[in-house]
Amino acid sequence: xxxxxxxxxxxxxxxxxIPPEGLHEEASYDPAPLDMGRLDIALREPxxxxxxxxxxxxxxxxxxxxxxxxxxxxxxxxxxFASTVTADAVFSYPATETDVIDITEDVRQEIILAYPMxxxxxxxxxxxxxxCGQDLNTHPCGHDQRPEAAGGSPAGENPxxx
Length: 162
Ligand SMILES: [Zn+2]
Ligand SMILES: [Zn+2]
Hints:
Elements: E1 12-14, E2 23-29, E3 41-42, E4 47-56, E5 59-73, E6 80-94, E7 100-102, H1 104-114
Antiparallel strand pairs: 1-7, 2-4, 3-5, 4-5, 5-6
Bound molecules: zinc ion (2 copies).
One zinc ion binds at residues 129, 131-132, 134, 141, 143.
């Protein structure tokens, strides 16, 4: 599975190469620098960026479509599932003809902002039994799942088991 996509470390734009009608660029990035050390988010595939770059003197405006595949761990049932973060962003840079613009850091920031706070495999995921840990999406174990039954708080994402 190597060499499928050429991965670049950065996306750099030479201002003097941008034609008056604008420039379309595509790149894929190594996702490793986006690893925030979160155990519930794994980055295993390249990030894809499609950009339209136009000179709007005295700035260069970059309209970017960003796709970042993620492997997430559900906060309720602990199952791993694939998801994709997408973001549409517009960046502008003050620039002169001789400049080289690097959009890599801005792309990273957009993706980090789009990371899910609490990954859930599906909106109606039933999670794990508060009593015995059974995955309730597979089959119910018959235990009472109301928060008060397990002694947790009513908000109870993380009930304290006695
Ligand atoms: Zn789940
Ligand atoms: Zn149970």
